[in-house]
Write a structure and sequence with these properties.
single chain; globular; 141 residues; mainly alpha
């Protein structure tokens, strides 16, 4: 399954970001644009084929039986040093569509747990990203 497909740090980061975008089963243009911008900014577009990785991700996603184990596997490959920064990217991707549904909230809790980010820190990051999205959209502070 995914352990034979995702074997590098760059792939793992790419697949984690896909998982954040596609947890609600929808991939809007805005989400795709934001994801692409993040992958380019992190220079992942030169390390992996984003289109190929998306095909790989979609091929195994229905078979993910234990989401916590999946997230743990990806994070073990990523080996994050700046866990709050990684978590904030995940929050941004989950918030790219207009609503944060229960599945996305549960996903963020799992990611925070695996990154050993406390509930207060996670809530602060979630609020920060949500407020930044409001400011970016409505241009008011």
């Amino acid at each position: 399954m995914y352990t034979s497909i995702v074997t590098t740090q760059d792939q793992a980061l790419c697949h984690l970001f896909f998982h954040c975008c596609l947890e609600d089963e929808q991939f809007s243009k805005r989400e795709m644009d934001d994801l692409s911008a993040k992958l380019v900014a992190l220079n992942l577009n030169t390390q992996v084929s984003i289109k190929d990785e998306l095909v790989h991700y979609r091929s195994y996603k229905p078979e993910i039986a234990d989401e916590q184990a999946y997230i743990r596997y990806l994070l073990q490959l990523i080996k994050p040093v700046n866990e709050l920064a990684l978590y904030s990217y995940c929050v941004e991707l989950c918030l790219d569509d207009p609503t944060l549904d229960a599945r996305e909230e549960a996903l963020l809790v799992k990611i925070a747990e695996e990154l050993e980010i406390g509930a207060v820190e996670a809530l602060t990051v979630n609020r920060l990203i949500a407020q930044r999205k409001v400011v970016e959209g409505q241009k008011i502070f």
